[in-house]
Amino acid sequence: MTPHILLINPNSSETTSDMMQAIALRSSAERLDVKAVTASRSPAMIVTPEQLTASATQVVELGTAHGRDCAGIIVSAFGDPGLAELRRKVAVPVVGICEASMIEASQGGRKFGVATSTPDLIEAIDQRAHDLGLGHLYTGVRCTEGDPVALASDTGLLAEALAGAVRACIELDGAEAVIIGGGPLGQAADRLRQVFDTPVIGPIPAAVERLIGLIGQGTSV
Description:
By secondary structure, the chain is of the alpha/beta class. The protein has helices at 14-28, 49-66, 83-89, 97-105, 122-131, 148-152, 155-171, 186-192, 203-217, and strands at 4-9, 33-38, 72-75, 94-96, 112-116, 138-143, 177-180, 200-201. It has a four-stranded parallel beta sheet, sandwiched between helices. A four-stranded parallel beta sheet has the order 6-5-7-8, with helices on both faces. Helix 2 runs parallel beside helix 3 (83-89), helix 4 (97-105) crosses helix 9 (203-217) and helix 7 packs across helix 8.
């Protein structure tokens, strides 16, 4: 089988999987193919801590089912559900989009924040920064207003709303890099990277780069 990256979408939307796969393919730039699999037992967009926690079980199921046939795995939800357990169960490198983007954003000791559309997940995002030992650089989360599922259905409005959150991270919190916090926000992240002088980090490209680096080093962590 041709070596490829397996992208696991813990949300149940096939449309979101297609979008995230397309972003990952562009980021890979033909270094590795990308195949996506989609959870079936989650909502179309994970927006609560309970949904995030519940999604971990199927992430591990999908990863272990396909892990022997790929070069590495990306968990493409911004709370990295199931990441630690999946790493214990497969022999290939596994990265989460939250972890990878925070590591990239903090390079060189940069202070970084997160702009996202899911206020109920702020605590989970905060926890990831501290779990990664990056709490001293983390400036916190700024959220868009309104229903995140409705906002995600309009890419123009989503990008506009996230731009305001990015601006708040920079101007109010002192962030020197801002992550767009969510796999389903991948298209907006691509758009906003062209708008700001301050680095705006797309979590899917960050995960692809980190994973390809780990594959090249021959490590499973």
